[in-house]
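Before going further, learn to read the protein records used in this course. A complete example follows; check for yourself that the lines match position by position.
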Amino acid sequence: MKTQEVVWRHPKGRFDVVETSGINMMGEHYTYREAVLTPRRDARGMASEIGLPDAGRGLVTEALPKRRAHLTEEERARILQLARDGRTAIEIARETGRSVSTVNKVTRGQSVRVRQTVRGWTQEEIDTVHRLRDAGKTSFEISAAVGRTAQAVRGLIERYRAKWASA
């Protein structure tokens, strides 16, 4: 008779420590512990086919979906065509179901360049930066107010420095 019991669970659900005990063929008692990945609760989704303790029935093997296969030539051609049509990397990724980094890797070294998404400054944001800069706020404080990075704010201030100085 063999029994299994979960004696510890990882706080983020990545694995359980399972204690297995029983009596071997020589009539001797044995106990061992092992770490078992738990794909049903693994937030990262990195576990693959593994054994999981299942109440009273021993280990049950659960198959998880495999990672996406390599790109087919048709997918590569489609990504390149969408890039030639002037689509952004994010738009291509959403349409093809691939990541932005995959889209960038496919187009790198090709005669086509993917248009990156650049969010322009609205006049309201420019006015807010100007007003906060004149009030003595730092670029970090201004960035929090307009929802941009501090580096983006510093770049905007540099571009408008001469115009704001004459105003």
User: Anything to note?
Assistant: Confidence is low (pLDDT under 50) at residues 48-66. Helices lie at 73-84, 89-96, 100-107, 123-134, 139-146, 150-166. The chain has three domains: 2-62, 68-118, 123-166.
